[in-house]
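sorry to bug you again but im stuck and you know this stuff better than me. what follows is a protein written twice so to speak, once as letters and once as structure tokens for the fold. id like you to explain what the token line says about the fold, in plain words if possible. anything you notice is useful, everything is just below.
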Amino acid sequence: MLENYLPVLIFLTIATLLAAVLLGLGAVLGRLGTRKHGDADKLTAYECGFDAFEDTRARFDVRYYLVAILFIVFDLEIAFLFPWAVSLGSTGRFGLAVMGVFLGVLVVGFIYEWKKGALEWD
């Protein structure tokens, strides 16, 4: 029975060795490139080609994150709706009911964010 796991062990060993070699190669080449081509201007931090206007650790408004979460939720909804629409013929009424519950939960989440004012940018 243990011989069934031998291909998995070989795969994990090769993957670990390959990852270590690539990480080491990247570190070595990165150090060589910095010494060879590094100057004060190249090693400075920049943002869009010019100096930052303010501190880079500035806080974002929490509404930004709420809108991002809202986008992810509706993006996942679309990702689940396409396969459901394709398989609707085979799932029948049960598939329709399950998708109705799924969409209902998403609508409740959307209404919650709407009531909390996440979609209003004052």
In short: Residues 62-116 form one domain. The chain has two domains: 1-58, 62-116. The longest helix spans residues 6-37.
